[in-house]
Every structure is written in C-alpha cells, then in structure tokens.
Amino acid sequence: MMQSLGRKYVRYINHTYQRTGTLWEGRYKSTLVDTQTYFLTVSRYIEMNPVRAHMVKSPDEYPWSSFKGNGLGKNIELLTPHIVYLALGKTKAQRMSRYYSLFEQDISSEELRDIRECTNKAWVLGSDKFKAQIKGASNRRVESSGWGGDRRSGDRSRSLTP
C-alpha cells in the first residue's frame, strides 16, 4: 500500500511541477570539514552555488542563502552565527564587512575541486593534522590513496611492469 501511495505521489508531483524522475534524485553527500581552516571557504562555496549555476547574479539575490544574514545583517531567525563567523570581528558591523569582503575574490579552482571531490567521495576536507585525527578516531580512509582509475596510465604503469 505504501509503495503504491509513494508512486502515485511522485507521479502527482512530477505532473504538477513538470518534472521527471524520482522525487529525491541522487544520494545525499556530505563531508567532515576542518572548521578552523575551511569553514569560511565552504561557506563561500555554498553561498556562491546559485551564482555559479546562473540562477542569480549575486548571493544576496538567492532567497534561501544565509549571505543576507552574514554579509548584509538581515535578521534570519533560523540562522545561528558560527563561532568562526563570530571571530571575524568584535562588532556585528565588523563581522558583516569582513564576511562580505570574502566574496570580492573568487574561490580558486583548486579549492573548488577539493571541496567537490571530498564531498562526492566522502573524504575529509582539512589539514593533514585534522585528517589524522579523524582517521585515528574513525579508523577509516579520509583521503585518496592514489590508487584506482586507469591503472595503465601515469607512473603506476611503469612501476608495475617488469
């Protein structure tokens, strides 16, 4: 009964909103982030996603962005300032100004790649020390081992041949 109800609901949503596919396409992805080193970079990454997707021209135009609270001082009830954000300045005006100024420069292509790769592959985003702490606590791989993919390319193929 629940499966039938679920299928009917998905058909209804797809028809109503002119969409196709499953209701929740793609799997949930996340990564552990070294707060001290990467919090502000990841915040910029998230708040610039609608701009990179050409949905808006600036992050303050996106209705679901925390940029309005952090960078423009708009009161957002559901937004709790992070300790790293609070450390940007002693006053609200200082924090807003410093946060806003972070958006004057683009996130480097290396940082974008690192954030995306760590998120998509469930690796840890952070310093070597942070990665070692997480690895020790969780006993799981926290970054690429350098193996995999096309095993006949690059230096690896030379090391495997007699």
UniProtKB/TrEMBL annotation:
Swiss-Prot/TrEMBL GO biological process terms: DNA transposition
Superkingdom of the source species: Bacteria
Positions of the UniProt region annotated as Disordered: 136-162
Residue ranges, compositional bias (Basic and acidic residues): 149-162
Example of a GO MF term: DNA binding
Name of the protein: Transposase and inactivated derivatives
